[in-house]
Design goal:
This protein is 66% helix and 0% strand. The protein has 547 residues and is mostly helical. The structure holds protoporphyrin IX containing FE (HEM) and copper (II) ion (CU). Copper (II) ion binds next to helix 8.
Length: 547
């Protein structure tokens, strides 16, 4: 058993490297930098909203701040971090493969991210785009044309990157599993990546189509979506949401997978309902494709159609509820260790439940008509995307950092990070439900002075969120250089990625890995220590402690 970690020289991370582990870390670090940039833009938004008047920035710049904030958070952080970073790093290791199916395509997909991001951020300095992350025409066709075109080109590049990644994930999972591993022996993260990849492949091309037509309208004077030339802006909305509703699942499915893999390890219990979790991912993926018009209840959609989309949307609560039930049942009665990975996972489950509940509320047509385009929607998306996706990504970082670096993140700093993040998050976004119900519109730089105090609470919460990132950054950099060294399998986990050294050698496994157990055959034990024992011995020990 090789326990000696294999460290990649730092400069390799700046090269066109085809090793999926290098690419995964390249994605993780790059997207995190974009997260920080998106966070600074959010800070600009919250600073402006600390007072009801327009004083910090002009209205135009405010529009551009939330436009770029939303676009960066989605297309340069959550989507590429969940799929690109974790998908790349984990899939081959989890299925016992040497690399991805198409390593060069993989490197190309990554290297499309920096130019895509540069183009998007560059648009701010050329002519700030103002039409929101949704870029609905006719607004997107009349304001900031050159910036809007840069925005479109950037999304086309990032979308292509995402498609290339999905082709790779699907092929790798379906074709490159170690001999003897059936689909039902894969870690659940791989199932969730199958579901997310299917969504990417089906929906992203439709977004590309919409954006190309939008660009024709701007540069060539066509009128696909331009009502003054006989076009129909609602067609854009259909095409946009045919991608962007599935996109919320592209952003959350990989995180569902992360949580399903983190919880059993730190609760020392088998996952509850393996097949239910696996199939519910596929069900979410299918249902996610037929609900897009719930974003268009106020766009003149006919009543019978609204009824269909309302009911279909509510049905998604079923597979989602199955997952939540399974996670709760997994930790129920476990020997839970409340370390940072576990705290972020439990934070994820609880915040995602709130986001899911407000989601069922806005799925209902009469309610949605009341809160459409208010801060209620802003609260909802952040409970799903921040309390959900971001918390889950952090859980994944704390859990797999020892695999990636051979060192553990510092726990006191991690717990500080979690506590500040959790308080800041709820302080920033919980009051927005109330603001929305009271009718405060989103995407506007000024507001009715009666909302001042509550907005100031939100802004202080966002400041706390910014501060919470400091202990994390210190922790990540400091632990990478000098953190506590660990052996191959510090969490005593059973999935294959822990059977090789930490960090793994370039070829991942020196011998073909052997499946000694299912991925989650944990007994309840409370022995938490570093283990470098051979897997067979470890397993009999772990299972010997079973109930
Ligand atoms: C860092 C903490 C964050 C803060 C303080 C924050 C704050 C805000 C605020 C106040 C708005 C509403 C702007 C308006 O409508 O006038 C907004 C919009 C938005 N945020 Fe965040 N946000 C944060 C993180 C995130 C994350 C992690 C995501 C993940 C995807 C995200 C996605 C979005 C989206 C999609 C919009 C809609 C943009 C638009 O209307 O075009 N945000 N954010
Ligand atoms: Cu949707």
């Amino acid at each position: 058993m090789a326990n000696q970690g294999h460290h990649t020289p730092w400069w390799k991370y700046f090269t066109f490297n085809t090793d999926h582990k290098v690419i995964g870390i390249q994605y993780l670090v790059t997207t995190f930098i974009f997260y920080l940039i998106g966070g600074v833009l959010a800070g600009g938004v919250r600073t402006e909203l600390a007072t009801p008047e327009v004083d910090f920035v002009s209205r135009e710049i405010y529009n551009s701040l939330f436009t770029l904030h939303g676009t960066i958070m989605i297309f340069l952080w959550i989507v590429p971090a969940g799929t690109g970073a974790f998908g790349n790093y984990l899939i081959p290791l989890m299925i016992g493969a040497r690399d991805m199916a198409f390593p060069r395509l993989n490197a190309i997909a990554f290297w499309m991210i920096p130019p895509g991001g540069a183009l998007l951020i560059g648009s701010f300095f050329v002519e700030p785009p103002q039409a929101g992350w949704t870029s609905y025409p006719p607004l997107s066709e009349i304001a900031s044309n050159s910036g809007q075109i840069m925005w479109i080109l950037s999304l086309l590049i990032l979308g292509t990157s995402s498609i290339l990644g999905a082709v790779n994930f699907l092929t790798t999972i379906l074709k490159m599993r170690t001999p003897g591993m059936t689909l039902y022996q894969m870690p659940l993260f791989c199932w969730s990546m199958i579901a997310a990849s299917i969504l990417i492949l089906i929906s992203t091309p439709v977004l590309a189509g919409a954006l190309i037509l939008l660009m024709f309208d701007i540069v060539a004077g066509t009128a696909f979506f331009n009502p003054t030339g006989g076009g129909d802006p609602v067609v854009y909305q259909h095409m946009f949401w045919f991608y962007s509703h599935p996109a919320v699942y592209i952003m959350i499915l990989p995180v569902f997978g992360i949580i399903s893999d983190v919880l059993p390890v730190h609760a020392r219990k088998p996952i509850f309902g393996y097949t239910a979790i696996a199939y519910s991912s596929l069900a979410i993926s299918f249902l996610g494709l037929v609900v897009w018009a719930h974003h268009m209840f106020t766009s003149g959609t006919p009543g019978w159609l609204r009824m269909f989309f309302m009911i279909a949307t509510m049905i998604i609560a079923v597979p989602t509820g199955i997952k939540i039930f399974s996670w709760v049942a997994t930790v129920w009665g476990g020997k839970i260790e409340l370390n940072s990975a576990m705290l972020f996972s439990l934070g994820f489950v609880s915040m995602f439940v709130i986001g899911g509940l407000s989601g069922v509320m806005v799925a209902s047509v009469p309610f949605d008509i009341h809160v459409h385009d208010t801060y209620f929607v802003v609260a909802h998306i952040h409970y799903v995307l921040f309390g959900g996706s971001v918390f889950g990504l952090y859980a994944g970082i704390y859990h797999w950092f020892p695999k990636m670096t051979g060192r553990k993140l510092n726990e006191p700093l991690g717990i500080t990070h979690f506590v500040l993040n959790f308080i800041g998050f709820n302080m920033c976004f919980l009051p927005m439900h109330w603001l929305g119900l009271q009718g405060m519109p989103r995407r506007v730089a000024e507001y009715d002075p009666q909302f001042t105090f509550v907005n100031q609470i939100c802004s202080v919460g966002s400041l706390l969120l910014a501060i919470s990132t400091v202990p994390f950054l210190i922790n990540a950099i400091w632990s990478w250089i000098g953190g506590k060294q660990v052996g191959a399998n510090p969490w005593r986990a059973l999935t294959l990625e822990w059977q090789t050294a930490s960090p793994p050698p370039e070829e991942n496994f020196l011998e073909n890995p052997v499946l000694w157990s299912g991925p989650y055959d944990y007994g309840i034990d409370n022995v938490h220590r570093d283990s470098d024992k051979p897997v067979e011995e470890l397993l009999s020990e772990v299972q010997g402690n079973a109930r």
